[in-house]
Amino acid sequence: MRRIPIVPVTEPPATLVYAPAKGRGTVWALEHRFNRDQRESFDDGWGTLEQAALEEPLPIGTQVLEEHVKTILAGNDSPDIGFDLSINPYRGCEHGCIYCYARPTHSYLNLSPGIDFETRIIAKVNAAERLREALSARNYTPLQLNIGSATDAYQPVERRLRITRSVIEVLKECSHPFSLITKSAGVERDLDLIAPMAERRLASVYFSITTLDPALARVMEPRAAAPQRRLRAIETLAKAGVPVGVSVSPVIPFLNEPELERILEAAREAGATSAFSIVLRLPWEVKPLFLQWLQQHFPERAERVMARLRDMRGGRDYDATFGRRMTGSGLWAQLLRQRFEKACARLGFNRKRVELDLTQFQRPAKRGDESPRQASLF
What we know:
This protein is α/β, with parallel strands linked by helices. Helix content is 32%, strand content 12%.
């Protein structure tokens, strides 16, 4: 039985080019930084590696693993992120975006940030239950809450499991405001919950649009909704009265960076009213994955892309310093920021995030509590 070549090494293969798999951002089983043992591919003299690289790859299936979590709310103390709490109903993301800064989090599960991140999805099946417990606690104070900040809350498995919907149902019940960011049109399925909350200033939605080029999107974020489908979803939500923003992120020099103004124009025409943008980040294992992908799909531009990124990162591939990690620094970062600001001003984008109302929060019922409002007074 033929199997797709999955390469468990820590550096991109130097001599072999492994064919990309349809619908996957990478086939590389990159070892993570917590591994105690290291493995490398070995040619036994029979041309095994070359033969494997030439074979037609079989589709790589997705495995969904259920997890019963102890907590669902994650606090944020990063000064350059505009929310206080986050909920991620899933670990890993089937969208397969090669640039995803959340890929290294799979290392904590002893899984590869490469192929495992997009094929081994962890579903937090008791997310709504844990959220209800957290919000009903006497010492809980409502804060700015975002859904899907690390991995997409509307990735394909959500159609079946509906964990994100169950989370929003709890938030709606207790009038807790939230923002949500996604690359999926699946958010339309929950418009019956989101639209009434938006009318009360309790919900806003942001779409990440990196390119308008379907061919580029197909290799850069293979299982996310097509760019035009995301624009239609923006229009649908905007017409339903939901405040919609656009994130042109990440900006990658010489790949999607030339489209910056066009993306903003298309999103504004579709109904988006606010916008923000982040320069490509390459923390931890994201760097070798992106480098291998770049050499594979855009070898003629790879050196230019990385040279420009280093210009914006003080000569390094990545600068994790707060205040610079999202925007970069130096001349090219300033020019990119000026382009973005001028385009936003011309198009009438609101540069501030939608202000949501925290005052309407009412503590939800605990399981088995028949009089939640009465209990919340004590």
